[in-house]
User: Fold this.
Amino acid sequence: MASPRLRPSATRIAIPMAGLALLAAALTASSTVAHARSVTYRANPTNPLVGVQWGVYKGGQDGAYPAFESSSGTERALLAKVALQPRARWYGSWIPTRDIRAKVHSEIAAEQADARNPNVMVPMALFRQFPGHERDKGIPWSAADQQNYRDWYNAVARGIGKAHALIILEPDLPVALKGWRPDIRLRLVNYAARTLAALPNTVIYIDGGASDWLKPYQQAALLKAAGVAHVRGFALDGTHYTPTSDNIRDGRAVVAALARHGIPGKHFVIDTSDNGAGFTFGEYYAKHPNGFFANAEPCQTKAEHRCVTLGIPPTTQVAEPAWHFSARVDDIAKRWVDAFVWYNRPWLTNATWPFDLRRTLQVARTTPFQ
Assistant:
């Protein structure tokens, strides 16, 4: 995926405002308070994401909250399914090094103020590794480029400071394996991981791809080089749409592979923003031979398969009966999965930019969850 600017209406039905207020209040509670009520699974007693309030991004970058604020009726109720959930705010090379510290600091402060909680856990995704992804992956990085990368993360760290942050580090990181000097690129990610891990209140997961991308042994090697030993664990499925149960099984295999590398006990999170009717890379192109995976078609009905719709809402309750996992998958989730998180953005064109109101309403209307 590229930076937000590098990639390329529903009928309204009036409903009583009192009922709408109740709906919004309920959704707000589910997105920010449910984490405080969520249980600590006995198999995963150290989960740092349990029992804390997660922030809800209300800025304009992903378009969801401004659209929600200006909407009404049925459209507002549908937009609430996105706008009132904890969503990772994206930061990347489109924000210059000179500006990133102030940008991070101000937006964390905004979520803290909105939550009326200085300890709110702020979700963020840091995309500095690949400013143009496919466009620049083969271009060598000069010594100055590499230093700028380190300087950018030093500034991010100063912007975060003592704030509580849930960080997805370098989504789409497997792209590094096909680019210029993977060893240097992963060494830089390792620097970022160590720099952010030194902060007092960060919880960091390095992106490891998806179950339909790399094999677990490849994911483990990638993550080891990228510094997973220094952080809580890894993240899966941020730029794919694979079913959550597939990623739970894949994540367990990655945990085992990391243990064989001498890095035991790692945990993981899974992006569930877009896989409510999940599918693999191969299944997508079998259905859409001339399609574009990054902007996969949204579901048209709740019964349709292999299409994009909102998945399980962000939560640490990863083994609920409502998710319909097998007993084996539940057992894995309870032990190794810290949370389901939203760090992709299927309500945007190509999941990057710009905001697409019609697409947003469609993925909200067809979700089997919420």
User: Anything to note?
Assistant: The first strand starts at residue 89 and ends at 91.
